[in-house]
Design brief:
Rossmann fold, UDP-N-acetylmuramoyl-L-alanine:D-glutamate ligase, alpha/beta, 488 residues, 6-stranded mixed β-sheet, single chain
């Protein structure tokens, strides 16, 4: 377990005892800090008691004697209004930080690579970690993805922490400067927690805070918000700034053109690989993810063949266009990580004939932005709080069925593709003409599940139960023709 010597003997409050908060509390106790931990949820407190975690109601504690409040990222500290404990800490001028900031104070000697963005950050984080591992570099991958930052093993001097960072987490970093910072894209999300799009963008931009001549900034330029930030950072002339794109030429950066990943960081426009050969990375959004991972790993000194081999061997991530099974020629795709319309757009563009399962707790804007992709959808099965609103948006454009839950939606989708398979046997012989059952909710999961992982696991279990012994996990989904792909 990581040790943070600067916290030894100090009084530290920890608010929020989920995965992140518990990891922070354990590391602090291990470091010799005097920890007072709390969670408003009694179930979480009981779990902490089972570990003999020192609990104290932080509303009754004196923050003038606290060195810091370590705040779980899910707890508001600004918008829509600060948690009352945060207000008390602020009044006492107590430092408020997150667990990633704790890790940065451990003094491990490792470099920090950070990935953020509205969509694609988990895949890109995992891809960077995979490339480094395959190249024999010591890397630890986590953060918002998987293992909390402070719970990661030390990679040792000369190693790397590869961290996915959400906007919530970035707001809780105060002194950490990322050696390599990646921003993939920005579209409206979590605006209630940031006071609007401007606040959300400001939180994302913090990934580049403090960077200087020895640091690298990698920025996607496939959306207007990120493109504007790239121009501003490039003009400031502080860090080495590398543009990346999955759709257009990016001079001095890394991009995909005519189906090839191209490296122009050194000004030579070298073709690296045909992007379609990276079978775990379908679609132009993943082309941008691959470009960003190339730029980041090139910045640490890896050779092009090492990076190419790492991209080729990347197995993909669960819940992100995950090919669960192919049953009677129909691919079943788990895209539960698509918690907003922008993420779902990326999946819809990859397939030609879609039976779509969607819904949950809607984000701002609903699914209006998906209108250009409605022609790819044969039928929609809608669930959760958003079902009625989504049905109204689809009316007259896509046939839709409102369902009580995921199980009934899956049953309806399975019956439909079974009938279609019987009516349209091998119409053209092309895999791309086969229907795809796509579970891409375009919503948060919290109306029915604890998180998108639990939601995706539920879908996978339904597919596996239906598939039985006929499941063929080796067969992946059939994406639409790559020549048509552009950034959604």
């Amino acid at each position: 377990m990581i040790a943070i010597p600067s916290m030894s003997g100090r009084n530290i409050a920890v608010l929020g005892l989920g995965k992140s908060g518990m990891a922070a509390a354990r590391a602090l106790i291990h470091s010799g800090a005097h920890v007072l931990a709390w969670d408003d949820d009694e179930t979480c407190r009981n779990c902490a008691r089972a570990e003999d975690m020192p609990l104290a109601d932080l509303m009754a504690e004196d923050f003038s004697d606290m060195a810091a409040l370590v705040l779980s990222p899910g707890i508001p500290h600004t918008f829509p209004e600060p948690h009352p404990v945060v207000t008390r800490a602020q009044a006492a001028n107590c430092e408020i930080i997150g667990e990633t900031e704790l890790l940065s104070r451990a003094g491990t000697g490792a470099a920090f690579i950070s990935v953020t963005g509205t969509n694609g950050k988990s895949t890109t984080t995992a891809l960077i970690g995979h490339i480094l591992d395959q190249a024999g570099r010591s890397a630890r991958t986590g953060g918002n993805l998987g293992v909390p930052s402070v719970a990661l093993d030390e990679p040792g001097p000369g190693g790397y922490y590869v961290l996915e960072m959400s906007s919530y987490q970035l707001e809780l970093v105060s002194t950490l400067v990322f050696d390599i910072a990646v921003l993939l894209n920005i579209s409206p999300d979590h605006t209630d927690r940031h006071g609007g799009l401007k606040g959300y963008m400001s939180a994302k931009e913090r990934v580049f805070a403090g960077q200087g001549a020895s640091h690298t900034a990698v920025i996607g330029i496939d959306d207007a918000h990120s493109r504007g930030l790239f121009e501003n950072l490039k003009a400031s002339g502080d860090a080495l700034t590398i543009p990346v794109s999955g759709a257009d030429r990016a001079a001095g950066g890394v991009y995909v053109e005519n189906g090839w990943l191209v490296n122009d960081i050194e000004g030579r426009e070298e073709r690296v690989m045909e992007i379609a050969t990276a079978t775990a990375l379908p679609g132009s959004h993943n082309a941008q993810n691959a470009a960003a991972a190339f730029a980041a790993t090139r910045a640490v000194g890896l050779a092009m063949p090492q990076i190419r081999d790492g991209i080729h061997s990347f197995p993909g991530l669960p819940h992100r266009q995950e090919p669960v099974a192919r049953i009677n020629g129909v691919a079943f795709i788990n895209d539960s990580k698509a918690t907003n319309a922008a993420a779902t757009a990326r999946a819809l563009y990859c397939y030609d004939h879609i039976i779509w399962i969607a819904g949950g707790q809607a984000k701002e804007g609903g699914i209006e932005s998906l209108t250009p992709y409605f022609g790819r959808i044969r039928h929609a099965f809608l669930i959760g709080e958003a079902a009625d609103a989504f049905s109204r948006t689809l009316q007259g454009k896509v046939d839709a069925t409102l369902c009580d839950d995921l199980e009934s939606a899956f049953a309806g989708a399975y019956e439909m593709v079974t009938v279609q398979a019987a009516d349209e046997p091998e119409a053209s012989g092309k895999a791309s003409d086969a229907p795809v059952v796509l579970f891409s909710p375009a919503c948060a999961s919290f109306d029915q599940w604890r998180d998108f992982e639990a939601r995706g696991d539920a879908f996978r279990a339904l597919v596996h139960k239906r598939a039985g012994i006929d499941v063929n996990l080796a067969d992946g989904p059939a994406p639409g023709p790559g020549s048509k792909e552009t950034t959604p």
